[in-house]
Description:
mainly alpha; 17 helices; about 80% helix; globular
Amino acid sequence: MCLSRNKLSDVRGELFGFSIITIILFHFCEDVEKAGFGGAVTAMTKIGNLALGSSGVEIFLFLSGMGLFRSLSGNPRLSDFYRKRLRRVLPAYLVFGGAGWLILDILLRKAGWLTFLLDFTTVSFWTEGRRLVWYISLILILYLLFPLLYRMVAIPDGRLAGTLTAVLTAAVMAGCLALHFLAQPVYDHIEIALWRVVPFILGAWYGRKMRCGQGFTAEAVILCAMGVIGMALAAVTKWRPDFLWGVFSLRLSTLFYPFVVMFTAAAVLSKCGGSRFLRFVGSISLELYLSHVIIRAIFNEAGLKTCYPQYYLLCIALSAALSVAVNRLFMRRKGA
């Protein structure tokens, strides 16, 4: 199987860094909008959300799916695949999640050990919609199921593999909509994760094309066109909430817009020859995500509201320092 790479895969590390930075920016914009400051500050955050929104999450999952395909195709032993995945996620989560939930549930909220256990195991996300570390809960499930997705995407007949991928993507979207209409409370708890399965599936499909050195031009154009159309539908839905009976929710309308952001960023990075800084940020992106969301939650619970720049900058500084330390600690132990 050929191993040549195209432009998007050449800047995959930088795109991980780009995506986590956009997530951090999105959270600040979200905090400022919730605070209701008004004026130029809120206007700037609204512009930021319009340009990027939470696109970094979809980009993160797309790149994860892409990387998992490459990993499993390079070493088909499932034991090695699962070991590598768990060693990447669990140590960082045990550190940040363990300490974070202890501080939040036991020290600050006095919620008790049962709540701590439900939060730490991420069970509370699926049962009560507590979203703080929803990504960890989702990615572990996707890791578990990925070999099944891989067997479908890796079918030698490329046309059949593409058709099956499209059918699966449509089925996931249809399932999300069905849950929305049939079990609204359940949907409200977990929709933040369910819709993000789509970019993960598409990332696995792109991993196949990357592995064979194929381009992604036609698909990129289609995805970006869907992203632009979706944003137009989102604008109409904001103006007319009853548009098409509410089928075009904000999540569905903006589902493909992150591909516009990602391919644009990839083109710029490729033109510039990459970025050492973004590549470094990408190498600690998981730790940075975990430390950021948990420290942000602790700050807000303790009254240090992260809608204020001084507290948010402190949150970022602490997150960055802890992320580097934890990443180096576990990377060193792996190499020992």
